[in-house]
Amino acid sequence: MEQILVEELFKERIDAIWKDKKYESAELRDRGYAIPKKVLCDAIMFIGSNPSLRKNDFSQGESSFYTRKSEESAEKDFPYFNKFVEVSEKVNFPWTHLDLLYVRETGQKLIKAYCSKVNEPFFDFAKQQCLMSKEIIERAKPRIIVVSNAYARDLMFNGNTENGAFKCSFDENIGTLRIENHPTLSGTPVFFTSMLTGQRALDLGSYDRLIWHIKFVLSKM
Fold first, then answer.
1. Structure pTM?
2. Cα torsion at 185, 141, 93, 151 (round to 10°)?
3. Domain definitions of the chain by residue range
4. According to DSSP H, which parts of the chain are helical?
5. pLDDT confidence of residue 63
6. CATH (one of 3.40.30, 1.20.1260, 3.40.470, 3.30.390) for 3-219
7. What's the CA gap between 171 and 220, in Å, rounded?
């Protein structure tokens, strides 16, 4: 299956952002970054906000391009990805994942607070990461996008298009949004949903409806 080799194509640019002196005082920068080594093309792409900071996942301060074994097999991976594997199996379609920001922080309120400070270094620091993530999404040309994080929705699919957000509109024929006015992604279906894992995970009934809806949309494409 075709892939975007993120590390090969973007490492130099990501490192340049982290080394840029104007971001030296940006919060969380000293934790390094975490981003997948590759992203699958023409797959169901699950979009998150940013990687969490957990002792068993990544070493603090150490930048990482990580590999998800479960993306191409049923092998166990980080628990966060297990629901993506399950959705993929239930709809019989490959999956991939990308966080819009690469900084490590578990608290979403903190990330949102830092991003709201327009005149502080973190604001542009985060914007540069979002713009790069948008480019990765454009290159990957996902079949369907599932945004499983409320703040990721605000950053990339409900935000200012001048800052890189996609413009979306509701399609009554498939019952969800589609990207519009884009040179390569126009018509791509987009689902907004709650997180699939964790304390605020989607309830079972809503999860079953999401599975049905993704299957339905795939059948129409």
1. 0.89
2. -70
3. 3-219
4. 6-19, 82-91, 108-115, 121-140, 150-152, 204-219
5. 73
6. 3.40.470
7. 12
